[in-house]
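WARN retry 2 of 3 for item q-0093 after timeout on previous attempt; input resubmitted unchanged.
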Amino acid sequence: MKRLKYLLIVLVIAVGFTSCQSVRVSTDYDDEVDFNQYQTFAFYKPGIDEAEISDLDKRRILKAIDYSLTEKGMTKDKNPDLLVSIFTDATEELSVYPRYYGGWYSPWYGPYNNASVQSRTEGTLYIDLIDAKTKNLVWQGVGTGALEPHAEVNKKTEKINKIVQEILNRFPPGAENKK
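OK item q-0093 returned
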């Protein structure tokens, strides 16, 4: 019984830790589009240039997108079926944890209030797929997760690869159900 309690505690901690590290993904798409028609892609430079992140991170993202789409059987082409654009956003979240000290043993000094504040930056990556002929947005994937701006290069690359993979696992629509 003691082992079961210990295992349960470890499991709860592990699930809690991994949920903090996860990427939240959502997608939207034009349900009137036949995604089987798209075989080639290229990056949409004007859209990518507007993304407000470092050029190093842009290259990491584009490399991850290129890899993911190529793994899906698509090829890069100068006359593509799809244009790929990205957009990024970051928000800072503040969490306040109040603490209350005091009680019956301290009537002369009164209660002592203290709070701790923690901040965390969340980044959001939007991957837009645009029909090259019509210039209409046909699919959008969004991934949100905690940012580590001072992480080592290999950790940044790993995090970007994970976010891009999680987003593009849902392209084309219904792909996440085929696994």
